[in-house]
Design a protein that fits this description.
Layout lengths: L18 H14 L8 H14 L5 H10 L1 H11 L10 H15 L7 E6 L5 H12 L6 E7 L2 H9 L1 E3 L8 H7 E4 L2 E4 L1 H4 L2 E5 L11 E6 L8 H14 E9 L13 E3 L4 E4 L2
């Protein structure tokens, strides 16, 4: 399901230049560094129009004024703009490939600390899945695990580590019982494993990346960017990997010409940086 989808069809005039929306994009970039033009316009405009109308603003100009003054509304804008749709062990067979094939290759020899990054980590399900798998393989204590997102609200939820039961539907039962404890209607993630993840705010399109990662996980995010933005990000991700390191992408994000980024396909949705 496309989380941008809204009932009722596209807003009138969506395919015509809209000075009100274009000025909004310009203002947001100047004030926050977030470049909405890097996202697919029809989807993003429809999503933000729904938010604007819901809050009672007749134009993007008045909506921008409001979010400039109201932090709660600004965080709601960030939450709507980003794709905070996540769950643990999403597409389980791909995580099994990571556990059974990729991590043993990366950790072969056992004398090097793994550097792992969950990019666009949303509310924490992905980096915590990584933490559980690394812990299960006995690798977590000797790994550096960083998780980043542009949305401070999502990062705050990730640090809290409380989740609804439906987020755990793909977690193997034995793993769920080891790392989660029921807390009322919610499930609380292991405090010990929470400490293993360093959460940071980051704008993927604007910020520089750290280098020499063994594994970068960025799943189900790239599909919302323009082709130019994707191209830029794949170059940045490749540069951020050490030779032999892996990029793990989502099930709808196959890279059709990985060689132009110095990457080679291995397992499905895994790309290794050429040595």
């Amino acid at each position: 399901m496309n989380p941008f989808s809204q009932s009722g069809g596209a807003p009138a005039g969506e395919h015509q230049p809209d000075p009100d929306y274009l000025k909004f994009i310009q203002n947001i970039k100047q004030s926050t560094g977030i470049d909405l033009s890097e996202y697919k316009e029809a989807q993003m405009k429809r999503r933000l129009t729904t938010l604007r109308v819901k809050n009672g603003y007749q134009s993007f100009a008045s909506f921008y004024e409001a979010i400039s003054k109201d932090k709660t509304l600004f965080y709601e804008f960030l939450d709507r703009m980003t794709i905070n749709v996540s769950e643990f062990w999403r597409n389980p067979n791909r995580w099994e490939v990571l556990r059974d094939i990729i991590l043993p290759e990366l950790s072969a020899g056992g004398n090097r600390r793994l550097k792992v990054w969950s990019a666009a980590c949303s509310t924490g399900e992905e980096p915590y899945t990584l933490a559980m798998i690394l812990d299960g393989k006995g690798l977590l204590a000797d790994s550096s695990l960083v998780a980043t997102d542009i949305d401070e609200g999502a990062l705050a939820k990730a640090k809290q580590g409380l989740y609804m039961e439906r987020s755990l539907k793909d977690v193997p039962q034995d793993v769920a019982s080891r790392y989660f404890a029921q807390d009322g209607l919610m499930y609380k993630f292991s405090e010990q494993l929470k400490k293993s993840v360093q959460f940071r705010k980051q704008n993927l399109l604007m910020d520089r990346f750290e280098e020499k990662h063994d594994l970068i996980v960025c799943r189900n995010v790239m599909i919302y960017f323009t082709e130019d933005a994707k191209n830029k990000l794949y170059h940045k991700f490749a540069e951020a990997l050490r030779p032999g390191g892996y990029l793990f992408v989502g099930s709808t994000e196959q890279i059709f010409t990985p060689g132009q980024y110095g990457l080679e396909p291995t397992e499905t949705f895994f790309y290794r940086k050429k040595s």
